[in-house]
């Protein structure tokens, strides 16, 4: 599906409500309905892209800055003062500005856009962005319903019948998944259960459904799920079910969703699905003890040795893990995939069921709608752990509580850094694999105004030229072989009373 590139999170202005989904990373609120987008736009059109105005050549896969603008031709007009065949110029988005971005491979593609009027310069940040083209252009926003035309079944079904359906209640939505480019959920039934009556509809071949004229009120939709898939709760929270955000958060059951129908308005129920698969098991030590904090990666057996990409999960206090949402296929499990030893993983890379050679790894079959359980990994051998203890203090001897103690290994190829927090008495304890030599220091982040009458601390902050700073204690060298229970880390200023908020 065209238009799914993301770069940097940004909280959006409400003015971007009618915008698109083709940006390189805007963190958007709930997606508006077709009606909301239509009412909030000056122009609603379908177009096809005919050319791009390049500044230079593309340098990398997600390079967006080699394009200055693109040229579109209008195919159909649903709203606005433009005509079919008219040429429109669109500015290229910058990624974090939440404006739609294009690629030269998009030439020939068709789009549905919800637009404002053209502007000279960036529509939201003109003064802050002097490099924005200073000529009249359209800026397609990055959070909303603008999208590639091939996937816009919900929008087109309404827009093509405006005269017949305006002013009526409408419940609609689309089924889809990040894991496949093909439509899923064709021919699935939905029951819409109200206080006095139950209604039914079903998805078409594209996973799209709509139903008009539901009486206003609260309903529960019982959705038939495609086999082997489950609803993505995160994306459900961003569909316009009619409820406020705090009321949308949880499914009653795995396929029951509360919705609200409002008079003469639209309610949307877009369902994005994840693979309903899992591998569950335990990680245990050579002596059979459960190991907490060990992360497991499920890697497709089709990938080459050393290419450890995939879904992951970490063990809890019982040593139990669950790796979920893999596409069906054959997988191997990798514990501690980068091979670096730490207090949680005092061993190198280990494969299920407990071997260190990739070629000896057991293969696990993952099937749609089924969980592979009882898949235990026993670590064959672990390094001895050496404990170091100490306390983190202000210069007046008072404890520094709830702050980080950080250990940086000298051999970063074979050992990982370790971070722990001090307790309410300022004390800490770190266990490190024997041989893991390195440096230990305490960190303390603060800012001017956090504490009352703290001249020494504030003076040191001001010397940095900032209003905040992360202070370090003196650094302690650890040889990696001898336990130490008397480490004292000290900050270069006394403690102060926290200011009232």
Q: How do you describe this structure in short?
A:
The protein is mainly beta and 501 residues long.
Name of the top-level CATH class of the largest domain: Mainly Beta
Tell me which CATH architecture of the largest domain applies here.
Beta Barrel
Count of domain modules: 4
Kindly provide the radius of gyration, computed on alpha-carbon positions and rounded to a whole number of angstroms: 29 Å
Q: By helix and strand content, what is the structural category?
A: mainly beta
* CATH topology annotation of the largest domain: OB fold (Dihydrolipoamide Acetyltransferase, E2P)
Strand order of the largest sheet: 3-2-1-4-7
Give the overall shape, derived from the CA principal axes. globular
Number of strands: 35
Oligomer: single chain
User: Largest sheet, if any?
Assistant: 5 strands, antiparallel
In terms of per-residue confidence, which ranges show pLDDT below 50 for 5 or more consecutive residues? 1-21, 245-249
| Tally of contiguous helical segments | 6
Average pLDDT for all residues = 88
Helix content: under 10%
Describe the structure.
The chain is mostly beta strands and 501 residues long. The chain has four domains: 14-151, OB fold (Dihydrolipoamide Acetyltransferase, E2P); 167-275, Immunoglobulin-like, CATH 2.60.40.10; 278-378, Sandwich (Immunoglobulin-like); 385-498, Carboxypeptidase-like, regulatory domain (Immunoglobulin-like, Sandwich). 7% of the residues lie in helices and 37% in strands. The chain is built from six helices and 35 strands. The strands form nine sheets. Strands 3-2-1-4-7 form a five-stranded antiparallel beta sheet. It is globular and about 80 Å long. The model is unreliable at 1-21 and 245-249 (pLDDT under 50).
């Amino acid at each position: 599906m065209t238009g799914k590139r993301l770069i940097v999170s940004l909280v959006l202005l409400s003015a971007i409500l009618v915008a698109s989904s083709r940006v390189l990373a805007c963190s958007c609120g709930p997606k508006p309905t077709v009606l909301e987008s239509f009412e909030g736009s000056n122009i609603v059109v379908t177009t096809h892209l005919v050319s791009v105005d390049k500044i230079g050549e593309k340098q990398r896969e997600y390079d967006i800055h080699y394009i200055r603008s693109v040229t579109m031709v209008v195919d159909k007009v649903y709203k606005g003062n433009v005509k079919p065949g008219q040429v429109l110029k669109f500015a290229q988005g910058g990624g974090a500005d939440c404006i739609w971005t294009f690629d030269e491979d998009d030439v020939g593609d068709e789009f549905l856009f919800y637009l404002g009027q053209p502007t000279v310069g960036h529509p939201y940040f003109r003064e802050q962005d002097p490099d924005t083209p200073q000529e009249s252009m359209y800026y397609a926003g990055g959070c909303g319903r603008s999208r590639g035309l091939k996937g816009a079944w919900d929008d087109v079904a309404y827009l093509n019948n405006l005269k017949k359906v305006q002013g009526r209640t409408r419940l609609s939505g689309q089924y889809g998944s990040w894991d496949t480019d093909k439509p899923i959920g064709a021919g699935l039934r939905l029951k819409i259960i109200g206080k006095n009556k139950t209604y039914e509809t079903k998805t078409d071949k594209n996973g799209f459904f709509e139903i008009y004229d539901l009486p206003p009120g609260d309903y529960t939709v019982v959705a038939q799920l495609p086999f082997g898939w489950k609803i993505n709760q995160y994306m459900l929270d961003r569909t316009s079910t009619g409820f406020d955000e705090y009321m949308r958060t949880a499914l009653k059951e795995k396929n029951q969703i509360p919705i609200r129908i409002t008079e003469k308005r639209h309610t949307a129920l877009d369902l994005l699905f994840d693979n309903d698969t899992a591998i569950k098991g335990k990680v245990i030590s050579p002596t059979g003890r459960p190991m907490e904090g060990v992360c497991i990666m499920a890697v497709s057996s089709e990938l080459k040795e050393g290419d450890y990409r995939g879904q992951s999960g970490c063990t809890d206090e019982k040593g139990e893990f669950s790796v979920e949402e893999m596409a069906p296929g054959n997988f191997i499990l990798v514990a501690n995939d980068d091979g670096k030893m730490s207090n949680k993983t005092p061993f190198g890379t280990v494969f299920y069921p407990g071997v260190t050679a990739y070629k000896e790894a057991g293969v696990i079959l993952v099937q749609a709608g089924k969980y592979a359980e009882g898949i235990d990994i026993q670590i064959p051998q672990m390094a001895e752990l050496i404990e170091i203890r100490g306390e983190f203090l202000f210069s007046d001897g008072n404890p520094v509580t709830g702050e980080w103690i950080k250990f940086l290994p000298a051999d970063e190829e074979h050992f990982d850094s370790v971070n722990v927090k001090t307790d309410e008495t300022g004390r800490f304890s770190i266990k490190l694999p024997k041989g893991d030599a390195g440096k230990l220091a305490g960190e303390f982040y603060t800012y001017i105004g956090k504490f009352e009458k703290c001249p020494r601390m504030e003076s040191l902050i001001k010397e940095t030229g900032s209003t905040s700073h992360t202070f370090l204690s003196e650094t302690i060298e650890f040889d990696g072989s001898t336990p130490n229970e008397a480490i004292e880390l000290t900050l270069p200023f006394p403690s102060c009373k926290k200011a009232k908020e």
